[in-house]
């Protein structure tokens, strides 16, 4: 659960508003503020184990939302295309311009 | 509830996977397949009033998800920028190319 901090942080950015207030605070303290489980427990007036269980459940919820909506995967795909278009435009050649237009046309939101 | 069919259809595309199976089917029959409340009731073995209530609750859920995640609003904003970039690239002038790059750079996902 505790590995892949970057992924969890991004899932939290995307789906955080769907968590309960307490779950979201718990996740933010752990992933954004880097607090320990004991510190989070103190803040939320729950045990260290309680903080761990809350993190685990919240984390599971975030993964579950991603499994249903795939926002992370979709945004990565769109981001890749936009980055590629930016690189193509920097070259400022007619043929890269055509490819850039094509890529933009393929972007689905 | 029944107005704004286009908006509801788009919300259903975005958040449909978060509804229950029955709610999703109900919404699809009403908004995509254009069935009447009586027909939906028959399909789902519930009353016409039951179909109406289910549509209303599902519709409320979709609006609630949008209120939390703002995907529709965010996608519209990104779509507008991409459309503008496409128009700028079609003009193929140096100054529009710079503006196109700037717009792409502003896109947040």
TrEMBL record, chains A, B:
InterPro entries: RNA_pol_sigma_r3/r4-like (IPR013324), UPF0122 (IPR007394), UPF0122_fam_protein (IPR054831), WH-like_DNA-bd_sf (IPR036388). Pfam families: UPF0122 (PF04297). SUPFAM superfamilies: Sigma3 and sigma4 domains of RNA polymerase sigma factors. It comes from the Bacteria. Belongs to the UPF0122 family. NCBIfam families: YlxM. Might take part in the signal recognition particle (SRP) pathway. This is inferred from the conservation of its genetic proximity to ftsY/ffh. May be a regulatory protein. This is UPF0122 protein BN715_00878. It comes from Megasphaera elsdenii CAG:570.
């Amino acid at each position: 659960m505790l590995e892949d901090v970057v992924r969890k942080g991004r899932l939290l950015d995307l789906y955080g508003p769907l968590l309960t207030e307490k779950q979201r605070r718990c996740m933010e303290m752990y992933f954004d503020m880097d607090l320990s489980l004991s510190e989070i427990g103190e803040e939320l007036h729950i045990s260290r184990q309680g903080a761990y269980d809350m993190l685990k459940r919240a984390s599971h919820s975030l993964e579950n939302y991603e499994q249903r909506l795939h926002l992370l995967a979709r945004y990565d795909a769109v981001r890749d295309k936009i980055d590629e278009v930016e690189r193509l435009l920097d070259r400022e050649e007619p043929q890269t311009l055509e490819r850039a237009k094509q890529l933009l046309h393929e972007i689905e939101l």
